[in-house]
Amino acid sequence: MPPELIPGHAYLRVSSATAPDTLTGALSSSVDGSTVQLTYRGQVGELADEHIYEVTNSGKAIDPSLLDAGVVNAVKSVPGVKEVEVLVHKQRARRDEF
Q: Which of 38, 48, 58 minimizes the C-alpha distance to 82?
């Protein structure tokens, strides 16, 4: 079952061969004067090296529009991380039922 993503929360898709706990502990420190933490939400489908993390600030959800480049760059600087992408929630269009 895929991880549930809540609209209004910031999420990162991270490509990394390292264990998810390693990355979670690596960023649990101060970035730009605030305490930013990553919470592991799950794997992307069957891809073993693709992970989803929720970004929180002092335990509170961060709005995706307020997520700054400093957090993304801090995650990218962790050894073993290949790629980091901010996930954007998009509402799927409904088809008209006939």
A: 48
CB 64 within 8 A of CB 10: yes
CA distance 36 to 28: 6
Q: Are 81 and 18 in contact (CB under 8 A)?
A: yes
Tens-digit pLDDT profile for residues 17-27: 888 777 777 66
Three-class secondary structure assignment of the chain: CCCCCCCCCEEEEEEECCCHHHHHHHCCEEECCEEEEEEEEEEECCEEEEEEEEEEECCEECCHHHCCHHHHHHHHCCCCEEEEEEECCCCCCCCCCC
Domains within the chain, CATH numbers bracketed: 10-87 (3.30.70)
pTM of the predicted model as reported, rounded to 2 decimal places? 0.79
In whole angstroms, give the CA distance from residue 96 to residue 16.
Answer: 40
- At 44, give phi and psi (nearest 5°): -85, 105
